[in-house]
Amino acid sequence: MKKYIGVDVGGMSIKAAVVTEDGQMLSKYSCPTQTDKPYTVMTENIYNLCLSILTDADLKKEDIQGVGIGCPGTIWREKGIITFANNLDFYNVPLVKEFKKYWNINIQIENDANCAALGENKFGSGKGYKDCVFITLGTGVGTGFIVDGKLFTGRRGAGAEAGHMVIRIDGEKCTCGRRGCWEAYASASALIRETQKAMQKNPDTIMHKIAQEHGKVSGRTAFEASKQNDPEGKRIVKRYVKYIACGVVNLINIFRPEVVIIGGGVSNEGQYFIDMIQRYVNRYHYGKKLNPKAKVVRASLLNDAGILGAASLVME
Length: 316
Ligand SMILES: [Zn+2]
What we know:
By secondary structure, the protein is an alpha/beta fold. It folds into two domains: 3-122 and 304-312, Nucleotidyltransferase, domain 5, CATH 3.30.420; 127-300, ATPase, nucleotide binding domain (Nucleotidyltransferase, domain 5), CATH 3.30.420. Helices cover 37% and strands 23% of the residues. Helix 3 (112-123) packs across helix 10. The chain is globular, with a radius of gyration of 20 Å. It binds zinc ion (ZN). The site of zinc ion has 6 residues, from loops.
């Protein structure tokens, strides 16, 4: 069976695995992302990570058909360039050219959310569907779109950034410089911000106790309180889901996918959370019963979607 390497570069760590053509991972390693170092150091780290997983899987470089890398930011795949990644402080980084100095192999790079969308489409919850919308709810809101079986990236890979569609004019400040972006309301960071605000106003809410037990205010605090029937917790979760669902309906109205896949840490809240989004979608999507329904599902590959999707970049 053919073997590939998938690499997922994140803000905290770089993960890599040997992936077979049917989506099995043979060996997986990670190392810290040294965000204070230049891209040359990161490239060397990625290469060393590749060597480690090869040794671990008892394979040689010759056994690998290609290397796919998922990276945050705007990725110009055709040129092999990271155009812009603010978290890594990278501007016009020629990652592919640099990597080829170490290993002259078939290599492709793509945006990390796009890779996760590809991974879920090929091996996870989106398997068998030609039109998928993928959304990851984490520190930010990442999106990826599979349109008629193909990844939609826009010109020079700079599109598909639905986290930065404004859902509220003059709303909360976003990291991109605008106000009221979907990301500023639907990310886990936004949920934590709203939870903290509510806690300051309400000394009586059970959320204080929950946060103390967990050691901090997290994306789980309000959900936990809501399950325990705390009125403030319920109010925050309801509003948060409404913000997520508002963006989801916008995207359904544009792409009319078969499935909407929800990933990221918040999706761990489980099926009842997904059901809440589905109910809103059923009620507000354009055309109601006349137009095809989009099914909202939970991502199934979790943290491995990025690695598997990155590997799939070199699988044709
Ligand atoms: Zn924004």
